[in-house]
Amino acid sequence: MLERLGPITNLPDNSYQATITFDDDFIGFKGHFPDHPIVPGVCEISLVELLAQLVTGNDALRTKRIIHVKFHNPILPGDCATFTFSIRKDADDHTIVTASVSTTQNPNMATINLVLK
To answer: Is 80:104 a contact under the CB 8 Å cutoff?
Structure first.
């Protein structure tokens, strides 16, 4: 998935943004779903986890809990999705990631909030 990922940009409000293009040959489309491929939700969640690992430099971070996830619209073959996310620590030293996903066609693709440890 890293080869599809653009650079991660640090935004002025201390959030981050990265884009990823899901070309027709993206492996996640195989079997999900026949004749109507979409990016599996687990791929979107995994990508948020990966982005947090890259920003923090901690590749040991793993999702411990999904606080909230809502897939409003499917990401389709050929879509370039923008992940905008923020990272913070909670009182228990867990990493909290809040992300939104958009495309040029739709600014409201998904919202994802994770607890990582």
So the answer is: yes
Q: What is the pLDDT of residues 4-40, one digit of tens each?
A: 899 999 999 999 999 999 999 999 998 888 889 999 9
CA gap 92, 9 in Å, rounded = 27
Q: Locate tokens 């979107």: which residue?
A: 44
Does the structural domain 2-116 have CATH classification 3.10.129.10?
yes
The pairing of beta strand 63-71 with beta strand 9-10: unpaired
Q: What angle do CA 70, 60, 2 make, to 5 degrees?
A: 65
**Distance between alpha carbon 67 and the CA centroid of its chain, in Å?**
14
Residue 43 gets the label, from left (phi > 0), alpha (psi -120 to 50) or beta, of: alpha
Q: Residue 43: which residues within 8 A CB-CB, separation 6 or more?
A: 1, 28
Q: Buried b vs exposed e over 26-37: b needs ≥16 C-beta within 10 Å?
A: bebbeeeeeeeb
